[in-house]
Amino acid sequence: MTATRGLEGIVATTSSVSSIIDDTLTYVGYSIDDLAENASFEEVVYLLWHRKLPTSEQLDEIRKQLSENAKIPQQVVDHFKSYPIEKVHPMAALRTAVSLLGLFDEEADVMDPQANYRKAIRLQAQLPTVVAAFARVRKGLEPIEPRTDLAIAENFLYMLSGEEPSDIAVEAFNKALVLHADHELNASTFTARVCVATLSDVYSGITAAIGALKGPLHGGANEAVMKMLNEIGDIQNVESYVKDKFDRKEKIMGFGHRVYRKGDPRAKHLRTMSEKLTSITGDSKLYEMSLKIEELVTSKKPLPPNVDFYSASVYHSLGIDHDLFTPIFAMSRVSGWLAHILEQYDNNRLIRPRADYTGAVNQVYVPIEKRV
Ligand SMILES: CC(=O)SCCNC(=O)CCNC(=O)[C@H](O)C(C)(C)COP(=O)(O)OP(=O)(O)OC[C@H]1O[C@@H](n2cnc3c(N)ncnc32)[C@H](O)[C@@H]1OP(=O)(O)O
Ligand SMILES: O=C([O-])CC(=O)C(=O)O
């Protein structure tokens, strides 16, 4: 048995949710470019779960189901208030809150497809409310209830600030949600599938996936990009920063990808959005710095920016706290995780690979008093 480090290139399942072929990303065969330009996030959720674009009636129906299920139990808010919240990372809070939501869901352990679909609706609807509630409670503010007349992108921005967001903010945020919704067998989606393939429940699968997304080599990279931009501070420092990183053989956050070679097709949409938003806010510093970093990194190595790189300046321009960037990724990716979880249940087999053992062999047990 020979191990492949990081399972690179290993095909671990079949899936009809999304595909990456020759650097082209599609959801159910629809190009990400087309969806980013035209689709609402709710349409994408429907597409991922039903493998077809909704008619207007079907879209109205899923919107209604999502908005009717967006409230969260008061106990989740009380839970946030019960610990030193200012020291807690929002991804840790989100991971815990999803696990907690499972305790209040009477159907949590009901395993039939209809019950699992209802849980998918509840989780998709509640995650934005959880993230917004956490963001407010830690500032000593009361959470704002979700509105039933707003779509997910608009509602989330409204629940964060209490103000109706501008059209451009909604457009940018909806696009970001569409772009992050699914991505074939990335680490967090694989985690979700491994978890539920034991026939564990949907809440366990999503909790596990949030844990995997949190790391800076995956979803946590968007917050790490923002930290890097702050550390660089000024466009004049970009060159020496990038050189130092390469000299020290350290990773530059927001660059590189396991699957894409020529580049992540989502990055250009976020780059354009970053340019648009920063020109509106009148503060193009982060965008200019990001462009310069991209130019220098790609001139040294074939390492194009990934989805996390320009999402940092997009979210910053929307006035969002930097440690909420990864929870926002989760609010979108939960749609993909749920599509994969439902697909896994549909044709399940336990996921249990092997390890190439490299430890000691033929050891003889030594009584404790004789050990040195
Ligand atoms: C939503 C997402 O999850 S997108 C990815 C988000 N993560 C990041 O942006 C973190 C930075 N990027 C990385 O760490 C990597 O590119 C990953 C984890 C995304 C993919 O990595 P892998 O396929 O495992 O590649 P690996 O880490 O083995 O790197 C291969 C080579 O490229 C280099 N490399 C890869 N990414 C980077 C980077 N961001 N900066 C500098 N060098 C890099 C490695 O140092 C290595 O060089 P070497 O062959 O000379 O030793
Ligand atoms: O596919 C991956 O490995 C990571 C990624 O870009 C994503 O999850 O969006």
TrEMBL record:
Any one Pfam family match given in the protein's UniProt record, by short name = Citrate_synt
InterPro entries assigned: 2-MeCitrate/Citrate_synth_II (IPR011278), Citrate_synth-like_lrg_a-sub (IPR016142), Citrate_synth-like_sm_a-sub (IPR016143), Citrate_synthase (IPR002020), Citrate_synthase_AS (IPR019810), Citrate_synthase_bac-typ (IPR024176), Citrate_synthase_sf (IPR036969)
Q: Which reaction does it catalyse?
A: oxaloacetate + acetyl-CoA + H2O = citrate + CoA + H(+)
Q: Which GO terms describe its molecular function?
A: citrate synthase activity
Which key words tag this protein in UniProt? Answer: Acyltransferase, Transferase, Tricarboxylic acid cycle
What is the superkingdom listed in this entry's lineage? Bacteria
The metabolic or biological pathway listed in the UniProt record of this protein is: Carbohydrate metabolism; tricarboxylic acid cycle
Gene3D superfamilies on file = Citrate Synthase, domain 1, Cytochrome P450-Terp, domain 2
PANTHER family, per database record? CITRATE SYNTHASE, CITRATE SYNTHASE, PEROXISOMAL
| NCBIfam families according to UniProt | cit_synth_II, PRK14034.1, PRK14035.1
Similarity-based family: Belongs to the citrate synthase family.
Q: What is this protein called?
A: Citrate synthase
Q: Which organism is it from?
A: Metabacillus fastidiosus
Q: Could you tell me the gene encoding this protein?
A: citZ
